[in-house]
Amino acid sequence: MCHTDHTKSFNLVTIVVLAAGVWRPHFVVEGHGRLLEPPSRATMWRQGYPTPENYDDNQLFCGGVGVQYGENKGKCGDPWNGPREHEAGGKYANGIIVRSYQVGQVIDVSVELTANHKGYFEFRLCPTDNPFERVTHSCLAKYPLKVLPERDVRYYVQGGEGYYGASQKIHLKVQLPRNVKCRACLLQWKYNAGNSWGVDPDGTGCIGCGNQEQFYGCSDIAIGHSDVVLGKPAVKHPWLFQEETDVEWHFGIVKYNNKTTEEPPPSSSPIFYTSNCCVAVMVFHLMALFLSLPAMF
């Protein structure tokens, strides 16, 4: 007669549940996307621009939910605590102006979601007249762009052929401000995904609540200046102390832009972020260890 050790089975289930709870307190399903039009600093190489190739241009999510929130978060998808390669002075921020528009023009914007996970898009603008100058959150906050025809600052992603599957291209009409003219503006795209478990400030927990994964893309554009030459920087690099062909040129400007050490924003409830594969490996080893032990009863 077969005998089932219910105590051992119960303990095994308990360990698996506790392990998942400790190591993965937030159920996360990762979305991915890139800004195609106007081409972002990370993606413009795909359209033939002579810029470094970034094969991870659909994964600019500021290092993940655990590090991306706070005033110090990167504006173009880089982690706040690492070299900001997509911000001014970085490897992919070459100051090349990719599009020139008229003041107040309705422009075409295209986004490719390589994994559609609900949520919404937002677009912002920061006029600096210098693509080699880092933008600030306060500047971007002044110029939220409206998506037509609803004229809302948020576009809520709809389900489509890319929903949890193949890639999906979304084409939108976006209104530029009627009072902004610049030789160099940074256009920022933000994708706030909406299918991970989270908790709102009022304590409500749900899929899409609380802090969600965010993806970014930044494009260099000009507005209201017909003499701007596309495909070239709008101005001379102010920190260029060596020739661009010198291998130290890139490292010099990156060091300049990252010379101030920024502290992480305070957090009363730290979030631990791990990948699904890490959790699976951990649970597998725990199960193997438990099954190798002699029965306690």
From TrEMBL:
<feature type="signal peptide">
    <location>
        <begin position="1"/>
        <end position="21"/>
    </location>
</feature>
<feature type="transmembrane region" description="Helical">
    <location>
        <begin position="271"/>
        <end position="293"/>
    </location>
</feature>
<dbReference type="InterPro" id="IPR004302">
    <property type="entry name" value="Cellulose/chitin-bd_N"/>
</dbReference>
<keyword id="KW-0732">Signal</keyword>
<keyword id="KW-0812">Transmembrane</keyword>
<protein>
    <submittedName>
        <fullName>Uncharacterized protein LOC106078706</fullName>
    </submittedName>
</protein>
<feature type="domain" description="Chitin-binding type-4">
    <location>
        <begin position="32"/>
        <end position="221"/>
    </location>
</feature>
<keyword id="KW-1133">Transmembrane helix</keyword>
<dbReference type="Pfam" id="PF03067">
    <property type="entry name" value="LPMO_10"/>
</dbReference>
<keyword id="KW-0472">Membrane</keyword>
